[in-house]
Amino acid sequence: MAVVEAFGSGVLDLPDFYFTGDHYRYRFEPEAKQRFLDLLRERFNSGASYKGRASKWDTIIELKAAELGRYLAGQSNEINFSRPYLELKRTDSLERRRRILGLSQANARKLGIGKGTLHYLRRNAIDASYFEIYHKVAAKLGAETGVSVQS
Fold this sequence. Notes:
The chain is mainly α. The chain has seven helices and four strands; from the N terminus they run αββαββααααα.
């Protein structure tokens, strides 16, 4: 999932890789490697619900490793690696991009979206790269607003 996100967000791109010629291996540039590691670090520090609590992924991995250890040592009869599962949530769907590009300044104002935010949204909606939309703005852009959008 992190690899898909890295390419979708532009953290990694094909020019970041080079062919070494030995054993058909591809390597990637040190700067690209650092950007990818930063993305992974951010991903591992994001939260997930596990056993009714919000936990960071690095904590969940540690708990799952301990669970595996108990299973292998015969202290537990069951092991479950299917929970929690990682969900890939995109906030930049094609429909949302169309909605942003069709949103007039007046309708944006009615939704409570400022001029600067609308400019940022339009600029990113035109670009093919993945972009994040702040959850409060995403809620204002939701279909439940009832404000029509020009086609």
